[in-house]
UniProtKB/TrEMBL annotation:
Keyword annotations: Membrane, Transmembrane, Transmembrane helix
Biased composition (Basic and acidic residues): 21-31
Transmembrane annotation, as ranges: 69-86, 107-132
Protein's organism: Winogradskyella epiphytica
Chain positions covered by the region annotation Disordered: 21-45
Record-given protein name: Putative membrane protein
Length: 159
């Protein structure tokens, strides 16, 4: 029996040694994967910082572009106010031009729009002028509207 116990003890030691070796190999693999994951996370963080910096620069460029201000000025009274605020911090001649155009068209609409028949005709003409102005702004051209466009530039030159 002693030989059998000795053989069983040797077998048990071999099994324990194999288990220890397997555990060490698994620990090494886990450590390796953890390091890979850590390096990937660091690289992802660097990429995220770089992309955020690019976005910040792109946003500054978009906000400083007079064409965007001109287009925003065409979007209702709220768009005009936003364009006015955007243009006040970083003035561009292109943005100012269309802010003045839209102010003029809006004031004509307010002054004449309430007259029954004339107001309807003027509203149609103003819509056509607004569309033509928007197309010019999208095209990057500073074309005054056919309705008092040059006068709007004179009257509202302070904007």
């Amino acid at each position: 029996m002693s030989n059998e116990n000795k053989d069983l003890g040797d077998d048990l030691n071999d099994i324990l040694d194999d288990a220890k070796e397997g555990a060490r190999k698994t620990g090494d693999k886990i450590s390796q994967k953890t390091n890979e994951f850590s390096n990937d996370a660091k690289e992802f963080g660097r990429d995220a910082k770089e992309k955020a910096s690019e976005f910040k620069n792109d946003a500054k460029e978009v906000l400083s572009d007079g064409k965007n201000v001109a287009i925003i000025a065409h979007i209702t009274i709220f768009g005009w106010i936003i364009a006015l605020i955007m243009n006040s911090s970083n003035k561009s001649e292109f943005g100012s031009f269309y802010i003045r155009q839209m102010l003029g068209l809006g004031l004509i609409g307010l002054l004449v729009g309430w007259i029954p028949i004339i107001g309807f005709i003027v509203a149609i003409v103003l819509i056509v002028a607004w569309i033509m102005s928007l197309v010019s702004a999208l095209g990057g051209e500073m074309k005054p509207t056919f309705i008092l466009g040059d006068k709007f530039q004179e009257w509202f030159k302070g904007l």
